[in-house]
Design brief:
- This protein is mainly beta.
- Helices cover 2% and strands 49% of the residues.
- It has 1 helix and 16 strands.
- The strands form 4 sheets. Strands 7, 8, 9, 10, 11, 12, 13 and 14 form an 8-stranded antiparallel β-sheet that branches. Strands 3-4-5-6 form a 4-stranded antiparallel β-sheet, with no helix packed on it. A two-stranded antiparallel ribbon has the order 1-2.
- The two termini are 15 Å apart.
- The N terminus is likely disordered.
């Protein structure tokens, strides 16, 4: 099982969606608004979407998996970043960049991983960021880690390293993919269990293999086969 990342470098950007209006004669609305406008509120004015774009990163590293979150302090985006070496990508690290409510970056990005290993495939919910901390580039062995945006504390969710892929989080509920390719399972853990000795619960797999989980407030979905 290979780590999932893009081999291409790009910059992250944030787009804020705000409504704006262009006056138009009511009789001509159907044609004048075009495919990207309409008159949803029936006020005789075309409704459009304006895109306010802010560049979030400009580092020259290979950045991937941007995810939005909001804690008690502000909106933020979390992402992984890898330096492109002479031959291969180097170990990845997870960064959190705070944003204004308009989407503009504020201050310098904060390192959310512990600086060791190859950290990728992040997700965020509230003040909690989870990611896969692989032992090195090319290895699928590692642990799912938790970063608290308010305290800066990094915690291992898994009791010991295993073959893993991505993790997803919603509130205190975390799911991730574990196991070797072709025989993976989806695992569930509640962050309220930290420190209690409670172990993760297998939801599905390994036969058929379970992959690509997503988690919401009340449900977990995944792919089998």
């Amino acid at each position: 099982m290979k780590n999932r990342y893009s081999p291409f470098s790009f910059t992250l950007a944030c787009i804020a969606l705000t409504a704006w209006a262009v006056p138009s004669a009511s009789a001509q609305l159907a044609d004048s608004c075009g495919p990207f406008g309409g008159d949803d509120d029936n006020d005789g004015i075309c409704d459009f979407v304006e895109l306010d774009t802010y560049q979030v990163t400009a580092t020259g590293t290979v950045e991937s998996t941007p995810r939005l979150g909001r804690d008690d302090t502000s909106l933020y985006v979390v992402y992984s970043a890898q330096v492109l070496g002479s031959l291969n990508l180097e170990d990845g690290q997870i960064y959190m960049q705070r944003l204004t409510d308009e989407g503009a970056p504020v201050g310098a990005p904060v390192l959310a991983s512990d600086g060791t290993g190859n950290n990728l495939l992040n997700d965020a919910s509230g003040s909690k960021i989870v990611y896969s901390a692989f032992e090195s580039v090319g290895s699928n062995t590692g642990v799912v880690r938790l970063y608290d945006t308010e305290t800066g504390v990094v915690t291992d969710i898994m009791p010991f390293p295993e073959a893993i892929v991505e993790a997803r989080i919603s509130g205190d509920a975390v799911v991730w993919v574990q196991g070797e390719a072709g025989s993976t399972w989806v695992v569930y853990y509640n962050l309220a269990w930290l420190g209690t000795g409670a172990l993760p619960i297998v939801l599905a797999g390994p036969s058929p293999a379970a992959t690509d989980p997503e988690i919401g407030t009340d449900f977990v979905v995944w792919q089998e086969g």
